[in-house]
Design goal:
- The protein is mainly alpha-helical.
- The protein has a domain at about 55-90.
- The protein has helices at about 35-50, 55-95.
């Protein structure tokens, strides 16, 4: 077996009973107070939109196109509903003919005819 030589001498290595033994100083920092994560993410997103105008332009145009598409689909659906009502009514009326209505007429056999 080959042994790997240590970069640091054993006197400079941290002891095993220390809490941060073997962890670089930057990674041993534990944040205890600060802004919530969503606030930091929101700040980062706002900074990104301020620093990169093309992304802002693309996001704005995408939102406008999306809203225009939703409005167009809504208008088309409403127009289709309005125009289909007469067709549906005619189909239903043709499928079910109107009942024949007649007024009561006296029977002709019981009427006496008089000649004048």
């Amino acid at each position: 077996m080959t042994s790997i030589p240590l970069i640091e001498t054993p006197e400079l290595l941290p002891e095993a009973d220390e809490p941060a033994a073997g962890i670089p100083p930057l990674l041993s920092l534990v944040p205890q107070a600060g802004p919530p994560a969503f606030a930091a993410l929101a700040f980062g997103a706002a900074l990104l939109l301020l620093l990169v105008p093309p992304i802002t332009l693309v996001a704005t145009l995408t939102g406008v196109v999306f809203l225009a598409a939703v409005a167009l689909v809504t208008v088309l659906v409403l127009a289709g509903a309005i125009l289909s009502v007469p067709v549906v009514l005619v189909r239903r009326l043709r499928g079910h003919p109107l009942p024949h209505f007649s007024l009561p007429v006296p029977h002709l056999g019981s009427v006496k005819v008089r000649r004048v």
